Amino acid sequence: MRTRGLAAALLILATLTGCARSVEPTDHLGGRTPDRVRPHHGPAPHQPPYRRWGLTTPLAPAPTPASKPPPPGRHPHLPPVVDHIPTRDRVVFLTYDDGAERDPRFVDMVRELRLPVSMFLTDSVVGPAYAHFSRLQSVGANLQNHTLDHPALRGLPYAGQRAEICGQQDKLKSRFGLRPRLFRPPYGTYDATTLRAAADCGITAIVLWRASMGPTDLTYTHGSPRLRPGDIVAVDPDETTGPSLRERTTRLLRRVQEQGLTVGRLEDYL
User: What is the model's pTM?
Assistant: First the structure.
């Protein structure tokens, strides 16, 4: 009899212990213990913006450029053609063409890194997506002219070239309230007629590039295969097959930092 009583007591004790393990902790009022006193695995600590965008150190701030006239052109009344700006400031300039790639996270990247970028827009490429570039403008990007329909201008008659350049001037003025001062001819091709048409449309400089950032690394149009202070860099878009604009920009920024440079605002030097 004593043995059966002892076994029953042990069975009751085991049952109570098992139940206790399945019951969630409660406070003294019988409610669940607040989360703040329970083990909690929260999100990773907040990262600074430069780490969030793939850089190991912050991007150095650009110096304030001295006021200076633009480089001389071929004619005093025609805009200069530039792919490099003579400066002692250790800066390069980031430019983007067309407007085909419209990643909203690129807007975040420009805002968080305070990147001074210049976007050369083609109306037929941008299409109905001007709102994306309005957001870029609101976070500091500069919007410039890359023609209405992206034709190769060299060899076209004056009227056709003027229509392409002035037409996009009017589009950008109506969309953003400002007429661009800078113009990049599609494919980098131009002639004397291009310069005359651009001047008549209010353009003050024709902007080419000395270096371009492709899927993996930089290529150069001429000169030393290394970034130099004052270089204008074109970041090639590839919205279908290659790395995104964000990825290419991150790779370019790493090259810029490796060479002891930073990013300047092109419009401050032209």
Answer: 0.80
